[in-house]
Amino acid sequence: MNDFLTQLAAIVGPRHLLTADADTAPFTLDWRRRYQGAPLAVALPGDTAEVSALVRLCRAHRVAIVPQGGNTSTCGAATPDGSGRQLVVALRRLNAIRGVDADNNALTVGAGVTLQQAQQAAEAAGRLFPLSLASQGSCQIGGNLSTNAGGVAVLRYGTMRELTLGLEAVLPDGRVLDQLQGLRKDTTGLDLKQLFIGAEGQLGLITAATLKLFPLPSAHATAMVGVGDIETAIDWLNRLRHRFGDRLTAFEVMDASCQQVLLRHHPSLMPFSAPWLILIELSDGGDPAQLNDALAEWLATQDMLDGVIAQNETERRKLWTLREEISESQRKDGPSIKHDIAVPTSALPRLVRDCAADLNQAFPGVRIVAFGHAGDGNLHYNVSFTRPGNADLFDDEPAVNAIVYDHVYRLGGTLAAEHGVGQLKKDWLVRYKDPLALELMRTIKAALDPDGLMNPGKWL
């Protein structure tokens, strides 16, 4: 392997090839601190040509590649195994803003650009890139693409699949696929970029993307309201859609347990409590006061337990901070068995009711923390305290997952809505995914990566 590392250093530069344990340590542990790897080395290429040369070298030496963006994966998708034979390829140096075409509402960026940097580049051009995640200061566009990230604005703008116009990717044999055109319409065969979005780096390395921009809203109306049950929340979602159309940008829900976790760690942020809290946001052009008045007028006709409408940007940010702090607060609160699930929005009440009943029967006194993007049916459904003292939580994970996923798939849902599959859910994917769909995915994988060197040990 010394010859391999020497050639690799010649490609990326000695400063950008990390081999010492102290230097590689930040790249070996996932965000949840659940998966720990031991890579052969960490390479930090500086451009697409270096990525291409690196991949060719790895193929010649049969060295597996684990691509990594901001290392914010919650499923171990960007973590190497413990063999000491996998190369982590961190793409943070591919951080150029390649171009902004405001007239075409398009932004082209390198895969190592953080989501926040992409948002800022769009805003500087008077445009909006609408993907919004709690980790936006550290997650990178390449990772967002590889997991088909969604976030809080999917209701209006869609996931990364809908937000991507073009893609550049290095194939497992080192060739570069350049599909960065900023076109909305192209009927010349298959839309190849979609192969790489959501593939978690198993079909190639995404090196750049052309992203879809939108007019920058001048008005927001944001409210936090309490309702008595999830059925009421979904009824509100449908009526808000009817009243405001695509001005309804976000519709987030938080159950009572989620609110208790937030109260423990951010007591000053919690405005009130209810069986379910809903965070509603409208956005549009025009006068902010008019949009606020329209939301206030609608809310005045509804039966709610309590509520507050943000009167300025500071108050709006405070409400969103509350939502964005949930994951970190849960992390401080102790371990939990996490689920990133989705069902049709109409099925959310049944899922919440029936799944909780079965979990409580199996694990009396279990705590369920449920929150997320009810507007698109995506719920972060986290289970803890399955036994007194929570001593054996992960010993109960298979039984908990089976209960949750059985309910999800019975309702036509999915076990991975926006965080991907990675190492965490790969065996469950085999259990629940349609066998023909799995066969087709494996066929594509074998065609593009016959040696199985691209991010092995993950979902395929």
Summarize the structure.
The protein has about 450 residues and is an alpha+beta fold. It contains 17 helices and 18 strands.
Characterize the structure shown.
The chain has 460 residues and is of the alpha+beta class. The chain folds into 4 domains: 3-90, Uridine Diphospho-n-acetylenolpyruvylglucosamine Reductase, domain 2 (2-Layer Sandwich), CATH 3.30.43; 97-215, Uridine Diphospho-n-acetylenolpyruvylglucosamine Reductase, domain 3, CATH 3.30.465.10; 219-329, Alpha-Beta Plaits, CATH 3.30.70.2190; 334-418, Alpha-Beta Plaits. The protein is built from 17 helices and 18 strands. It has helices at residues 2-12, 21-24, 48-61, 115-124, 141-146, 154-157, 160-163, 193-196, 230-244, 256-265, 288-299, 313-324, 326-333, 348-362, 397-410, 426-432, 435-448, and strands at residues 17-18, 41-43, 64-68, 86-90, 97-101, 106-110, 127-128, 164-170, 176-179, 205-212, 214-215, 219-227, 248-255, 276-284, 306-309, 340-342, 367-373, 378-384. The protein has a 7-stranded antiparallel β-sheet with strand order 15-12-14-13-17-18-16, sandwiched between helices. It is globular and about 70 Å long. The two termini are 27 Å apart. The relative contact order is 0.12. The model has no long low-confidence stretch (mean pLDDT 94).
